[in-house]
């Protein structure tokens, strides 16, 4: 027994010296004991960063769109369209200009105010999503996933109602974002379950 106690004391002393001389190794061992990964999740962090930047870019776009809509509240849309047409190399009597004028006649002050307010509100939502994702907040990951999934039916309807290349591209981007977030959350949940299992095994 004295020999065993003496060996344990020497081993404890050696371990303490190693911890003091190499604190990084100690912190890594501590992370390993609690089931945390030793390697950085670089790819997934970059993915969240890209999605966050995409959301913030949408916030900038819709802020500009809302500001433009409110700026046009007290202006004549038809006159503005005609001035733009005059500055472009297009036939003022053509079908395109006629279509634009018909659309302009349908836009009134109430529609512009609604468009401006809705654009600003959506921009705020995008700022919340983007900031939360860039800070790697769990609530932002679920919040963005739910909102992206909820918006897909409307985007698909708009695509079939008013087909355009822009809508196709936007739908594909949002599908990619949703697929990535679902994959990320699934992988994160599995890692947490593995860490909890390893921690319970080590504690027992």
UniProtKB/TrEMBL annotation:
Keywords: Membrane, Transmembrane, Transmembrane helix
Ranges that cross the membrane: 115-135, 166-185
Pfam families the UniProt entry points to: DUF2127 (PF09900)
Protein name: Uncharacterized membrane protein (DUF2068 family)
Organism in which the protein naturally occurs: Granulicella mallensis
């Amino acid at each position: 027994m004295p020999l065993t106690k003496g060996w344990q004391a020497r081993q404890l002393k050696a371990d303490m010296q190693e911890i003091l001389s190499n604190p990084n190794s100690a912190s890594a061992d501590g992370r390993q004991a609690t089931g945390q990964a030793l390697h950085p999740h670089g790819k997934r962090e970059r993915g969240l960063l890209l999605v966050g930047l995409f959301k913030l870019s949408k916030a900038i776009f819709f802020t500009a769109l809302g500001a433009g809509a409110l700026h046009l509240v007290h202006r004549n849309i038809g006159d503005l369209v005609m001035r733009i047409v005059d500055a472009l190399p297009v036939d003022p009597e053509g079908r395109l200009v006629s279509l634009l004028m018909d659309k302009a006649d349908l836009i009134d002050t109430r529609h512009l105010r609604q468009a401006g307010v809705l654009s600003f509100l959506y921009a705020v939502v995008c700022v919340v999503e983007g900031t939360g994702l860039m800070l790697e907040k769990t609530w932002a990951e679920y919040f963005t996933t739910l909102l992206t999934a909820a918006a897909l039916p409307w985007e698909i309807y708009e695509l079939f109602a008013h087909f355009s290349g822009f809508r196709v591209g936007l739908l594909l981007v949002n599908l990619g974002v949703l697929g990535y977030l679902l994959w990320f959350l699934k992988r994160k949940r599995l890692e947490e379950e593995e860490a909890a299992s390893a921690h319970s095994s080590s504690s027992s």
